[in-house]
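User: Show me a protein chain along with its predicted structure.
Assistant: Here is one chain, sequence first, then C-alpha cells.
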Amino acid sequence: MIEARNLAYYYPGEEEVSLPALSGINLAVHRGEYLALLGPNGSGKTTLLKLFNALLTPSEGEVWVKGISTVDEDKITEVRRYCGMIFQNPDNQLVATTVEEDIAFGLENLALPSAEIKKKVLDVASLLGLDHLLQQPPHLLSGGEKQRVAIAGVLAMQPLCILMDEPTAMLDPAGRRDVIETVGRLNREQDLAVIHVTHFPEEAVFADRVIILNQGSLVTQGPPEIVFNDLKLLHSLGLQGPAAVELAALLRKDGFDLPSQLIHSRELVHSLCSWERKS
C-alpha cells in the first residue's frame, strides 16, 4: 500500500551540504499491517511519516501511496486521505468548538452532503466510544479522550493507513492504554494499516513488524520477538528492550532457563512459574 524506494531527505539549511535526515530507505507497508517505528531522537522517524503523508517530498528516491507518487501535486489530497496523520499533541489537531464539529471538519472540506457527514460522524463516534461526548468542547476532555477525537477525525475520512507520531507521549498510563487499545482494535477490525512511532517498547510488542532507525538509516526490521531480543544492538543505539526482555536477560545470567524470544510480561511470569515447578 505504501512503498519507499531509495528514499532520502535533506532539510534545507545554511550549509550547501547537510547530513541527510533519511538516506537509502527501502520499505513496503501492506494493507492491514501494524508497524512500530523506533529509534533515538533525530533518527528520522517523524520525517519518514511526513514523507508518507506528503507533508514533505523526497530529496531523492520515491514514495508511492496506493500507486500514487507523493510528488504528484494534483493527487496530494488523495494521498492524505489514504494516509491520515495523528500528532503527538492532540491540541494541535483539534480545531472546532465541539467534538461533533471536530470529527466533521475534514468531511465538510470535501463538501459532502450534510446527511452523509452526520452519518459518518455518528458511526465513527460510536466506534470509538465518543457518543456521549459529541456536544462537549474538546478542550475540556482528558488527554486520552482528545487523542481519540483526533483519531476519529482522521478515521471519518476513511483512510487506509493511520500514521501516528508518538501519540501517547503526553498521556498518563490510563490514557496511553486507552489509545493503544483503540488503535489495535481498529487495526484488527477495520483492516487499517498503522505506522506507530513510539519511544515505549511495551507499545511496540503488539506490532506485526518493528523497524529501527538510526541516523537516518534503517538498521533492522522484523517481528518484535526477534528485534527486541537483540539487546546488544538496542543498547548500542541507546535504546531499551521491553521490561520483560531486559529482566529475562538478567535472570538468564543468574542461571534461569528461560525461552529465548519472550517479550510480554505474562510470558515471563508463566516461564518463571514453570521453572519454579521444575526446580
